[in-house]
Amino acid sequence: MFSLERWQEVFQTIGKNKLRTILTMISVITGIFILVVLLGVGEGMKNGIKSTFQDDAENEISVYDGVTTVEYKGLNPGRKIQFKNEDFEQISRTHASDIDKKSSMYRIWSGLISYKDESGSYRIEGVLPDYEFIEKVSLISGRFLNQQDQKATEKYMAIGKKVKDDLFGDNKALGKMVEVSGINFKVIGVYTDPGGEREESRVYIPLSTSQKVFGGGQNIRQMNFTIPKRDNYDEALAESNRIVSKIERDLKSIHKVAPSDASGIRVRSTIEETKRFYDLTSVISLFFWSVGVATLFAGIIGVSNIMLIIVKERTKEIGIRKALGAKPFSIIGMVLHESIFVTTIAGFIGLILGLILLENLGPLIDTEFIKNPEVNLNIAVTTLGLLVIAGALAGFFPARKAAKIKPIVALRDE
Amino acid sequence: MIDIKDLHKSYQVGKNKLHVLKGINFHVEEGELVAIMGSSGSGKSTLLNILGILDEADEGSYHLDGTEIKNLTEKTAARYRNKFLGFIFQSFNLINYKSALDNVALPLFYQGMSGKERTARANDYLERVGLSDWATHLPNELSGGQKQRVAIARAMASHPKVLLADELTGALDSQTSYEIMDLIQKINDEGKTILVVTHEPDIAQMTKRIVNLKDGIIIDDKKIEQQKALANV
């Protein structure tokens, strides 16, 4: 079937019928091109949303203290609840098996940090080493805080990229000393955060140091935990809800807060936001896929139409060939061979054009909503295969019909 | 070479059944040059189509070189057409995007012959019909007579047992017609069996036997004194 002779036949036919070949190719090229670009932009939007939404761990539980609003066990409402280190330790201990990463925090909302002549006001957070994973920061240089720093109450600091740019410009920050309220801290790391500039204008110091330096004593402002990942969303949600209610119950009982009091102690889980994120991205995917598939379908219909016309146009030729002794299978093979060859070549051209466009245009697109438009090559090649198969099928039925008609009928066709 | 017994054929035209061939008995020896004549509607083209395995009879038997032609699959029919028969049509039926040479070589392609051999043999036959200088030309660059010569070369190339010609001079002026008939006579003189369907008496006179068809039956079948086509040129 794929003999050299057949190829020569195909090339001859293509060469002698340039217009219809070009029309077929344009139809396929456009279809694949639009599909690739759409999928690329869709993926870009997904990436954009991902980076906007997913700046923190998606299975995080945060616990905040607050002011009571409900009278409970003889205590008046309006009482300030203050978490202490021992609260965190107890929760960590009792829920050890449910918890993956954990950190408590002492926070200075706004602290003046200066290096040489430069200075700025930044949020200073005293945290434990696990906070690196909870906040999903990634270090550009140096390291994050570790257990040793916490234990030794080191005056170390991991600073956000924005802070580094503000204070150090293009100079190296690592190992330099910055001053906070007259106390020198050594910069041990510079990080980026998917949350963007807002979250990169923070600095992290060991919890113990923050409590000591800023007069926090044993006080903490909040606790953060992550729970181990689950295979599916529903399982993760159930697990998260279970742990949230347990932690809330334990803390409320320790601090004598009414179970119904929603503001004395607040426990929040990011998993519901994650759900929204998943929903949104799947809606976007669905949208682009349906447009893409519709385009592909239009392409397939285009190819089918052209195949029908080709076969119709060649009815007489098929009659001649049959009179000369062409077997039905060789007629079908001839039509299919040409159509598969043309659609494949055209498909690849469309694919490559689409990829070139994405490759060159992708980096130029600078909005928060589209990031790294890219296309899964496997999907692109699969759709190309589908188009070729559809084109072949679209050619097969008319070709088979033509191969079946009696040569005299075909010969009469003008 | 050809042996037909009690051949019947009808076509369905709308709701009516049109009985075209009503019992044809017909025998052709090897080396004969036969003209099948008749007015339009006499069934002569239908007969030729059945002879050419382009169409099937409803009843009766047809033997071609001892092989019974009956209930053939498309595949076998194609093989027989290729092996036994060469067709020459009124409208030439050349493939318009193929050169003269490629047209002649096409039946050989379907025989599975290699490219080199095909070209050699196709060139050989083009030379025999006097068109070796036109081998690379497309059909639309050829005159009617030249096209028919290419068609004859194509019909001959696969070494068929029988040549079947349907109104082969119908689209040609009389001068060209006689030149073509001269070629046909020469091929016949070399021993090839040829059947010509025509309604032109002068063309029929250039064969060796005239079979007259009317309303689906043979009314007259006689050998004649062959007129040489060259004499008319």
List keywords for this structure.
heterodimer, A: 414 residues, alpha+beta, six-stranded mixed barrel, 14 helices, 12 strands, B: alpha/beta, Rossmann fold, six-stranded mixed beta sheet, four-stranded antiparallel beta sheet, 7 helices, 10 strands
Task: Note the topology.
The complex is a heterodimer of chains A (414) and B (233).
Chain A: H1 4-16, H2 18-53, E1 60-65, E2 83-84, H3 85-94, E3 102-115, E4 118-127, H4 131-134, E5 138-142, H5 147-151, E6 156-160, H6 161-168, E7 177-180, E8 183-192, H7 197-200, E9 202-206, H8 207-213, E10 219-220, E11 222-226, H9 233-254, E12 265-269, H10 271-313, H11 315-323, H12 328-361, H13 377-404, H14 407-412
Helix pairs in contact in A: 2-10, 2-12, 2-13, 10-13, 12-13
Chain B: E1 2-13, E2 16-28, E3 33-37, H1 44-51, E4 59-64, E5 67-68, H2 74-84, E6 85-88, H3 100-110, H4 115-128, H5 144-157, E7 162-166, H6 174-189, E8 193-197, H7 201-204, E9 209-214, E10 217-223
Parallel strand pairs in B: 3-8, 3-9, 6-7, 7-8
Antiparallel strand pairs in B: 1-2, 1-4, 4-5, 9-10
Biggest sheet of chain A, in brief? 6 strands, mixed, barrel
Distance between the termini of chain B: 31 Å
Characterize the quaternary organization of these chains: heterodimer
Report the radius of gyration of chain B as a whole number of Å: 17 Å
Low-confidence stretches of chain A: none
Strand order of the largest sheet of chain B: 6-7-8-3-9-10
Quick overview:
The complex is a heterodimer of chains A (414) and B (233). Chain A is of the alpha+beta class and 414 residues long. Chain A has helices at 4-16, 18-53, 85-94, 131-134, 147-151, 161-168, 197-200, 207-213, 233-254, 271-313, 315-323, 328-361, 377-404, 407-412, and strands spanning 60-65, 83-84, 102-115, 118-127, 138-142, 156-160, 177-180, 183-192, 202-206, 219-220, 222-226, 265-269.
What does this molecule look like?
- The complex is a heterodimer of chains A (414) and B (233).
- By secondary structure, chain A is of the alpha+beta class.
- Chain A has two domains: 4-53 and 277-412, no CATH class; 60-271, no CATH class.
- Chain A is 55% helix and 18% strand.
- Chain A has helices spanning 4-16, 18-53, 85-94, 131-134, 147-151, 161-168, 197-200, 207-213, 233-254, 271-313, 315-323, 328-361, 377-404, 407-412, and strands spanning 60-65, 83-84, 102-115, 118-127, 138-142, 156-160, 177-180, 183-192, 202-206, 219-220, 222-226, 265-269.
- In chain A, β7 and β8 form a beta hairpin.
- The longest helix of chain A is centred in the C-terminal third of the chain and has 43 residues, at 271-313.
- In chain A, 39% of the residues are buried.
- The model of chain A has no long low-confidence stretch (mean pLDDT 85).
- With 233 residues, chain B is of the alpha/beta class.
- Chain B is built from seven helices and ten strands.
- Chain B has helices at 44-51, 74-84, 100-110, 115-128, 144-157, 174-189, 201-204, and strands spanning 2-13, 16-28, 33-37, 59-64, 67-68, 85-88, 162-166, 193-197, 209-214, 217-223.
- In chain B, β1 and β2 (16-28) form a beta hairpin.
- Chain A binds chain B through residues 4-5, 8-9, 12-13, 16-17, 316-317, 319-330, 403-404, 406-408, 411, and chain B through 49, 52, 54-55, 74-75, 78-79, 81-83, 87, 89, 93-95, 97-98, 102, 106-107, 109-111, 115, 154, 158.
